[in-house]
């Protein structure tokens, strides 16, 4: 049965279009164990061993459950160094669903970002984008470029309910072109379902207009297609004229206006590892193929095993099935709506890959210098074993010129939902844990950074409770806890 059109009959539920064939046991920990684990992890959820985590909402990256068909594909891995047949299957899948001419596989998304930045950006260039993403911006800067945010203002307001908060502001983009000159803008980086804004989509109308404006000035547009399928789902449901189109048709139309894409296949494409760069221009593709052998591997595997490419080719086909994406986003909406009903401040509208707690409103008494989102994610783990992650000042980093911390408008904790992994009952546990903390925000203590790595600091930074801040106690417990 072709489910790509959304033929769900009269059923209104987002219930999963699969049943569970294999389970992975989870370990429950005690509060004392979690206090110790969090202190040892320097109050950074990235530094926790997964064996200490109950429900893992750190990321939706590489954490999907693969289907039986994908696992069967793993057994068909052709591990030839050159010209693996799985590469050609992947090339077909990318061509059919994303439409680009050339495929350069990479080990994951940042491998593709590295290649694109190195072949396109020269020192002094400016790269506009609809909000920064950590690794994307970092590679642009390493190549000598400067990132400029041209997303609409609504994206920076967690309470704005505008349906396409991922849109590019055409006035900001025009002003930038006028200010620096088109010759200093090698390309615009257009992210679908903007991660740092809360998984917020772009409309097709805006994508079309943005690409037209760029192309008028000879500026290329490269899509960050990491969550483009989720974006296509929102276009189908929120943009008039697209309700009867399939997810595949919308995805192909999105890509058709752009010149290529970088892709972390660890998200939409339902695999545990992998990515690619896809390009239409023959000359650029040749440059990327020259460079991929230096950093990733031969141009027919780019850092992946043959079996990984097979799983990805099958995953791409599954990702565009309507029932899959409906259930995926339905589960995220279920979690978000329950939190909204309980009065918990979250970014709205509910996005595609997770729920983003508005830590600034959740913890109005913790100053921004004490990293409220980092503190909230640490406390949530200690209270419940649920692992989330910070998306605020720690993730943004410092101003390169002044060396000062930047305090963005969005100070968020991301509860990212892995695809096809957790049940509705797990979502209920997450809601209960957050609601409890929301009732007693005094359980959360502000943090100071005690170790700051040079690159992408949020991954490895360490923190300690601010000296002099109230040491938090679990209600009814006499022993002071290190956090939460
Ligand atoms: N995103 C995420 O958890 C994993 C690393 S950062 C915590 O959201 C976009 C929009 C991403 C992304 C990764 C990458 C990089 C590029 N663009 O992680 O290198 O969300 O495969 O992709 C993560 P890789």
Question: Can you tell me about this structure?
Answer:
It is a single chain. The chain is α/β, with parallel strands linked by helices and 484 residues long. It has 2 domains: 192 residues, Aspartate Aminotransferase, domain 1; 252 residues, Type I PLP-dependent aspartate aminotransferase-like (Major domain) (Aspartate Aminotransferase, domain 2). Helices cover 38% and strands 12% of the residues. The chain has a 5-stranded mixed beta sheet with strand order 2-8-7-6-5, sandwiched between helices. Strand 5, helix 7 and strand 6 form a beta-alpha-beta unit. It is globular, with a radius of gyration of 22 Å. It starts with 30 loop residues before the first helix and ends in a 19-residue tail after the last strand. The C terminus is likely disordered. It binds ligand PM9. Ligand PM9 binds next to helix 4 and helix 5.
**Top CATH class of the largest domain:** Alpha Beta
| Spatial extent as radius of gyration | 22 Å
| Whole-number total of structural domains | 2
Strand content: 5-15%
Assign the CATH superfamily of the largest domain. Answer: Type I PLP-dependent aspartate aminotransferase-like (Major domain)
Under the CATH scheme, which architecture of the largest domain would be assigned? 3-Layer(aba) Sandwich
């Amino acid at each position: 049965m072709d489910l790509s059109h959304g033929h769900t009959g009269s059923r209104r539920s987002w219930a999963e279009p699969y049943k569970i064939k294999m389970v992975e046991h989870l370990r429950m920990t005690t509060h004392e164990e979690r206090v110790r684990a969090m202190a040892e992890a320097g109050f950074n959820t990235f530094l926790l061993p997964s064996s200490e985590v109950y429900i893992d909402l750190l990321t939706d990256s590489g954490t999907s459950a693969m289907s039986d068909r994908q696992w069967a594909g793993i057994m068909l891995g052709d591990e030839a160094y050159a010209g693996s047949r799985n590469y050609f299957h992947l090339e077909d899948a990318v061509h059919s669903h994303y439409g680009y001419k050339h495929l350069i596989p990479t080990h994951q998304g940042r491998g593709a970002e590295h290649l694109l930045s190195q072949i396109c950006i020269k020192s002094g260039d400016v790269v506009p984008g609809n909000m920064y993403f950590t690794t994307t911006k970092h590679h642009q800067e390493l190549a000598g470029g400067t990132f400029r945010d041209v997303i609409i203002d609504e994206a920076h307001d967690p309470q704005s309910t505008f349906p396409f908060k991922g849109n590019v502001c055409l006035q900001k983009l025009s002003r930038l072109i006028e200010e620096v000159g088109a010759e200093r803008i090698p390309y615009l980086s257009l992210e679908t379902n903007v991660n740092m804004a809360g998984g917020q989509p772009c409309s097709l109308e805006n994508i079309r207009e943005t690409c037209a404006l760029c192309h008028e000035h000879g500026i290329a547009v490269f899509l960050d297609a990491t969550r483009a399928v989720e974006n296509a789902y929102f276009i189908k449901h929120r943009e008039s004229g697209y309700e009867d189109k399939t997810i595949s048709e919308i995805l192909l139309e999105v890509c058709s206006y752009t010149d290529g894409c970088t892709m972390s296949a660890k998200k939409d494409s339902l695999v545990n590892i992998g990515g690619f760069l896809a390009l239409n221009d023959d000359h650029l593709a040749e440059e990327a193929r020259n460079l991929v052998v230096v950093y990733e591997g031969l141009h027919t595997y780019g850092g992946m095993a043959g079996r990984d490419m097979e799983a990805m080719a099958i995953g791409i086909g599954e990702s565009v099935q309507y029932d899959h994406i409906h259930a995926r986003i339905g589960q995220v909406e279920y979690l978000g709506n329950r939190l909204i009903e309980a009065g918990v401040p979250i970014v709205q509208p509910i996005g595609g890959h997770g729920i983003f707690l508005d830590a600034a409103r959740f913890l109005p008494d913790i100053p921004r210098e004490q990293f409220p989102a980092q503190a909230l994610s640490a406390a949530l783990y200690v209270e419940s074993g649920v692992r989330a992650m910070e998306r605020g000042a720690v993730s943004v980093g410092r101003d390169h010129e002044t060396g000062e911390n930047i305090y963005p408008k969005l100070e968020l904790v991301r509860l990212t939902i892995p695809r096809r992994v957790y049940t509705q009952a797990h979502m209920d546990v997450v809601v209960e844990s957050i609601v409890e903390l929301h009732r007693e925000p005094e359980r959360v203590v502000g943090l100071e950074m005690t170790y700051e790595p040079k690159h992408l600091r949020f991954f490895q930074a360490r923190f300690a409770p601010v000296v002099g801040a109230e040491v938090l106690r679990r209600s009814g417990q006499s022993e002071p806890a290190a956090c939460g």
